[in-house]
Amino acid sequence: MEGHMENIQENLRHEEDSGVGGMASPSPDKLRIRSTRLPVQRSSICSRAYFVVVMVFFHVYILNVIALLLYVHYSNGHGDLVSDDRHSSPSVGDAESPSTHPTAPPERDPRIADQSHRFRLPRIEGIRVGHVQPVSLVSDRMHKMTTLSLKPLLFEIPGFLSEEECRVLVQLAQLKGLTESQMTAAGRGQEESNQPLLSLSTEEVFSLLDLNQDGLLQKQEIVSHSRSRDGTWLSPENLRQILAGLEACSTGMLSLEEFKGVYDISQNPGQEQSGKLRSEFKQRSKYTVLHQGPGSHHVLQALRRRVIILTRLPTALVDMSELLRVFRFELGDFSDAHHDSSPPHVETACSHTRLAAIASDLTEVSCRYLTVLIYLNPVEEGGETTFPVADNRTYDELALVQDGVDLTDTRKTCGQGNLRIKPTVGTALLLYNHLSDGQGWMGELDEYSLHGDCPVKRGLKWVANSWINVDPDHQRQARYQRLVADGHRAKSGVEEHSQTLSHINLHQDL
């Protein structure tokens, strides 16, 4: 029996050793082999972790791409005034195409922060005085544009018009008929008197300016007045002189006694010792205005196209600016040194966008971003264009009065200006009247743009002025363009209404 049990145990051991029987306990060697499978399980866990990491990085990459696309989209904005005006402001390359009616950019929510950086006015770089750069104005040849001054930014373009085109402009002006310049009311052929513009006493003027009758003049009371049509109110130069006196006052207000001193100086141009410029600008010439739109002479339309190409400005701005003005200076005719435009101010409104201004009591001023002046004939003697302070190191009104002589008086000091340009038939001058605001729009008045016409000593002088009007307030400029566009649409829909708004009868001649 014992032997039989030993055989059974031996068989069981034999089965365990031979691997027979599913319930056999593993041997130590098998335990070691089975333990080698554990790294396979850890590798599977690492694979899942690697997959998670890859997916996280993938999602981060996608989010970065989306953020980059959004940044590029919003950094480009809605484009500048040129791109907003696509239907009415073709690019320079499209300037030769027929003129189309301007379309105003959409109204922007006034609650949105100022976005003036989205608006751009092209501006030519002067580089340095004497720099010559080519410009393509016509298809058959290139013109040369020379920098004459950096302060102000001034260019000369010989051959801007041909002699034949200049003769046509002179003939058209003569057919239209010329009228006396607005600044010649003091009488032609004789020296203008130095009588004040007003026949009122200083006390009466003070009372008229003192709107709230508190016995003190504040800044807003002075700027609320503009010159009336009959010329019996304060001129812009008078207002500028009075404002200068008010700003020099420590209290920021003028009493009657303080006003008397300031007003007497502004009304007496003979007081050179005061250091102030003469308050009354003088000019003696005749002029007429010529329309350049559809139906006008082909020379006038060609001139308009070249101005668009030269200035690189949107067609809409040129179309809605002042009409071309042609001047004739006869023997002894002149114009004192002056600025074509006015300093931007919150209490003023540009004449060309006056209807788009919100307030009704704003003072109207001329807003001319740049001037294109074209000489139409050779002057026998005299008639130069003078820039008294061109490229001065600094600008100081006091320095314009030297030894009791006012440098703005071209009849006496024309030869003392820093820069004088002799008229040459067909030559054009491009003058920027304003600086840039640093964001691509129209900024402060360039004081160095002071210029005038020397007296004609022999013969005649014919010139044409093309002024491009831009409002320093780009929102008001946009409202004006929209108003003009609405007027054009109304006119095209109802032709029988002759008084329908258009940019011609909306614009108030400056």
Would you spell out the secondary-structure blueprint of this structure?
Layout: H1 2-18, H2 28-35, H3 38-76, H4 81-84, E1 132-135, E2 143-150, E3 153-157, H5 163-176, E4 179-180, H6 202-209, H7 219-223, H8 236-248, H9 256-267, E5 283-284, E6 286-290, H10 298-311, H11 315-319, E7 324-329, E8 334-338, E9 348-350, E10 363-365, E11 368-375, E12 381-382, E13 385-387, E14 401-402, E15 405-406, H12 410-413, E16 419-421, E17 428-432, E18 434-436, E19 442-445, E20 451-453, E21 456-458, E22 461-469, H13 474-493, H14 503-506
Parallel strand pairs: 9-10
Antiparallel strand pairs: 1-2, 2-3, 3-17, 4-6, 5-8, 6-7, 7-22, 8-20, 11-17, 11-22, 12-21, 13-16, 13-20, 14-15, 18-19
Helix pairs in contact: 8-9
Brief sketch in words of this structure:
The chain has 510 residues and is α+β, with helices and mostly antiparallel strands.
How would you describe what is shown here?
The protein is α+β, with helices and mostly antiparallel strands and 510 residues long. It contains 14 helices and 22 strands. The strands form six sheets. The chain has a nine-stranded antiparallel β-sheet, covered by helices on one side. The longest helix is centred in the N-terminal third of the chain and has 39 residues, at 38-76. The radius of gyration is 39 Å and the shape is extended. It starts with a helix and ends with a helix.
Roughly what fraction of the amino acids lie in strands?
15-25%
Cα radius of gyration in angstroms: 39 Å
What about the largest sheet?
Answer: 9 strands, antiparallel
- Sum up the overall morphology in one term: extended
**Arithmetic mean of pLDDT:** 76
The helix fraction, in percent, is 25-40%
How many E strands? Answer: 22
Summing up helix and strand content along with how strands pair, one would put the structural category as alpha+beta
Strand order of the largest sheet: 1-2-3-17-11-22-7-6-4
Count of helical regions: 14
Which spans have pLDDT < 50 for at least 5 consecutive residues?
19-23, 75-118, 184-198, 226-232, 269-279, 496-510
The separation of the N and C termini measures 139 Å
